[in-house]
Design brief:
Length: 404
């Protein structure tokens, strides 16, 4: 709450105007609050049935140690002003600075969620960033309009969802999931060198990935181990990237089979190829199998195999590292003249290390991991959303948090 005698503060007034402009652009009604005694709120904003009393606190620097205490003060004062108001208003606490990083925004969000879960909050800066949490405030978020600096070169991040990056992301997220659902190294990972050893990648590759996650605000710097934050946003970006990462090839039975017989054939082939890989014997068949591409069941059939299936009657998917007619023939399939009447979809993944390293075995059957199934189902235009929602509700709560 701001005393009337303090409202001449130029900096505070400028940030209050910035906040007001954010709401005006979103077609909210913005007005000043009448004074109660010698105190009054910075703003009152209205849109439909939503009405908030807004307290704005600002700092010259967007540092976490400056803005978190100001957020605490803004929350208390917004709550007090809402109680004193003659209108039915909800409290909204906003902090502002010249520039606020995504990491600081996320820390403020987590702080407010822990200590004042019933209060809506916002963070804005002079460069156009606005981030709000609260009922009816979803459409106010905007990214910063960063000004080009002549003394700095722009940062060009590599693809966040490259094949090996997806594999490392599965390691960071999958450690919270049962081993039956995903095959990843377990145990704490404190820094990029630990991640490189666990993922069997170079330290440079792991370091670039960790730095990119930090640079985009997806890692919590305050944890002893590497901890993903803003998981929902990260996973939605992952889904968007996944839509362009695979191609499906329709295949048909050479001799008519059912899905159970097909799965038995995949399991048998996986066992035989595994034996050939570790065998010292030489035969034409073992050499063919030894050099065969990796494979596993995917999407809806994989969800069924892991006991998380929801959609029935879908055409099964087979993840195959590369299109190999010998492997298809060994499984009783042909990709010739399959057309639209596919018995099986053969999926050639662009992210093959992520798919096959994280795959699990269920009674000898290689099955894509639960995160991969969730990603694939989420990107499926037909009935995938139902399956994805079911997996998220039943399995992925430790990844997405208690509000999943």
């Amino acid at each position: 709450m701001m005393a009337i005698v303090d409202r001449d503060s130029r900096v505070g007034a400028e940030f209050a105007n910035i906040v007001a402009e954010v709401f005006r652009k979103a077609n909210w009604r913005v007005r000043s609050e009448p004074a109660t005694g010698d105190m009054r709120a910075d703003l009152v904003v209205e849109h439909g049935s939503q009405q908030y009393v807004v307290e704005v606190k600002s700092a010259a620097e967007g540092r976490r140690d400056r803005l978190v205490p100001l957020m605490s003060q803004a929350i208390l004062e917004a709550q007090s002003r809402a109680r004193l108001s003659a209108e039915r208003v909800s409290p909204l606490a906003v902090v502002a600075a010249k520039r606020v990083s995504k990491a600081v925004v996320e820390h403020i969000r987590q702080f407010a969620a822990r200590h004042a879960p019933g209060v809506s909050i916002g963070v804005v800066d002079e460069e156009g960033l606005s981030c709000f949490v609260g009922s009816g405030l979803e459409g106010l978020d905007a990214g910063p309009r960063r000004q080009a600096r002549h003394d700095m070169q722009p940062v060009h991040w590599p693809d966040l969802f490259s094949d090996l990056n997806q594999w490392m992301l599965k390691i960071l997220l999958g450690r919270d999931l049962p081993e039956a659902f995903i095959s990843v190294p377990r145990g704490p990972i404190r820094h990029a060198t630990h991640l490189a050893a666990a993922a069997r990648v170079s330290v440079m590759t792991a370091s670039r990935f960790v730095n990119q996650l930090k640079g985009e605000g997806f890692l919590d710097d305050n944890q002893e181990c590497l901890q993903i934050v803003r998981t929902d946003e990260l996973m939605q970006r992952w889904i968007s990237a996944s839509r362009q990462m695979s191609r499906d090839i329709p295949a048909r039975w050479i001799i008519r089979k059912g899905v159970p017989q097909f799965l038995e054939g995949v399991a048998r082939y996986a066992v035989e190829s595994g034996k050939a890989l570790h065998s010292g014997t030489r035969s034409k068949k073992s050499e063919i199998i030894k050099g065969a591409p990796r494979l596993c069941i995917g999407v809806f059939a994989a969800a069924d195999a892991l006991g998380a299936g929801f959609v029935r009657g879908a055409t099964p998917h087979l993840y195959l590292e590369r299109l190999d007619p010998d492997v298809l023939q060994a499984l009783g399939l042909s990709a010739q003249d399959a057309g639209r009447s596919a018995d099986v979809f053969v999926r050639i993944p662009a992210n093959r290390e992520s798919v096959f390293r994280a795959a699990v075995h269920r009674d000898g059957l290689p099955v894509s991991d639960i995160l991969q199934i969730w990603l694939d189902a989420s990107a499926n235009p037909a009935r995938g959303r139902e399956q994805a929602d079911e997996i998220r509700r039943r399995v992925l709560k430790p990844v997405f948090g208690k509000n999943t």
